[in-house]
């Protein structure tokens, strides 16, 4: 069976700085795969490259067996890759509902769109309660929910989440992680970038530890969670 996403020897540079130095990994349909690692490891750069926002210097990206090399960024969403970016990038003056609807800009099935708006409100009731309010009035965690909800509106085959737990209270973080698990249970495949290694590895079928542009360790989430090196480096243990 072909993997949903295949990344092979991916290299990405900003001018002379090589941020991603030849990484390879796959995401099988129905899995949660996580990239963990400290600041500057190249995780965000990897997601931005998969979304077509940065052109790679080398390597291969295949989605459903098809190379993304010649696919322009604006067409990548229509293939089924959605990205909930770090820093959220919601539109603060627009209403919560309009922000969600933006995620469906490629769709014309009105009924389906309404259904998915409702699904976002079921996942995140606060968004439904405040649907007519400006998105900028939401708290950081709520904006993160909106960014996830918006990414889901394109009915992605692969949902890429960049640091969904960043800046959130422990309670909010639990809520977001529970939603990630729920999305997986409903069949969404997820590529999760996180600095919170504990939370990410607990959910992930497969995890990859990145350090300065390279994958240095790979394994099932639960195995990495008990790996001594991972515990020392990322889970704050001596
Ligand atoms: P973080 O969690 O802090 O986002 P990350 O693992 O996602 O970390 P990246 O943001 O991908 O890491 O950064 C990888 C490297 O590329 C870092 O050294 C960073 O300084 C560099 N970098 C990122 N964006 C740019 C840019 N626009 N121009 C130049 N260098 C960049």
Automatic annotation (TrEMBL):
Q: Which UniProt keywords apply?
A: Amino-acid transport, ATP-binding, Nucleotide-binding, Transport
GO terms for biological process, alphabetical: L-amino acid transport
Zinc found in the keyword field:
no
Highest taxon of the lineage: Bacteria
Q: Which SMART domains match?
A: AAA
Domain ABC transporter: where?
Answer: 5-237
Keyword ATP-binding tagged: yes
Database matches in CDD domains: ABC_TM1139_LivF_branched
Q: Which GO terms describe its molecular function?
A: ATP binding; ATP hydrolysis activity; branched-chain amino acid transmembrane transporter activity
InterPro entries attached to this UniProt entry: AAA+_ATPase, ABC_branched_ATPase_LivF/BraG, ABC_transporter-like_ATP-bd, ABC_transporter-like_CS, BCAA_Transport_ATP-bd_LivF, P-loop_NTPase
One Pfam family named in its UniProt record: ABC_tran
Query: Coiled-coil ranges per the record?
Result: none
Q: Which family does it belong to?
A: Belongs to the ABC transporter superfamily.
What PANTHER family has UniProt attached to this entry? BRANCHED-CHAIN AMINO ACID TRANSPORT SYSTEM,ATP-BINDING PROTEIN (PTHR43820:SF3), HIGH-AFFINITY BRANCHED-CHAIN AMINO ACID TRANSPORT ATP-BINDING PROTEIN LIVF (PTHR43820)
Q: What is this protein called?
A: Amino acid ABC transporter ATPase
Lineage per the UniProt record: Bacteria, Bacillati, Actinomycetota, Actinomycetes, Kitasatosporales
């Amino acid at each position: 069976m072909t993997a949903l996403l295949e990344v092979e020897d991916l290299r990405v540079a900003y001018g002379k700085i090589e941020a991603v130095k030849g990484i390879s990994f796959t995401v099988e349909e129905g899995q949660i795969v996580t990239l963990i690692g400290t600041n500057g490891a190249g995780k965000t750069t990897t997601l931005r490259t998969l979304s077509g926002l940065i052109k790679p210097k080398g390597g291969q990206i295949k989605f459903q067996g098809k190379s993304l090399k010649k696919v322009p960024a604006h067409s990548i969403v229509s293939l089924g890759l959605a990205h909930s970016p770090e820093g959220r990038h919601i539109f603060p003056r627009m209403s919560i509902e309009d922000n969600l609807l933006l995620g469906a800009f490629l769709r014309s099935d009105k009924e389906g769109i309404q259904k998915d708006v409702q699904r976002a409100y079921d996942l995140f009731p606060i968004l439904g309660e405040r649907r007519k309010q400006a998105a900028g009035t939401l708290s950081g965690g709520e904006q993160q929910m909106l960014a996830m909800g918006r990414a889901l509106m394109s009915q992605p085959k692969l949902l890429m989440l960049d640091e969904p737990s960043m800046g959130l209270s422990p309670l909010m973080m639990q809520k977001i992680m529970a939603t990630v698990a729920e999305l997986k249970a409903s069949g969404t495949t997820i590529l999760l970038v996180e600095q919170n290694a504990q939370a990410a590895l607990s959910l992930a079928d497969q995890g990859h530890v990145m350090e300065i542009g390279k994958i240095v360790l790979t394994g099932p989430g639960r195995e990495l969670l008990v790996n001594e090196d991972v515990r020392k480096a990322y889970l704050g243990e001596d």
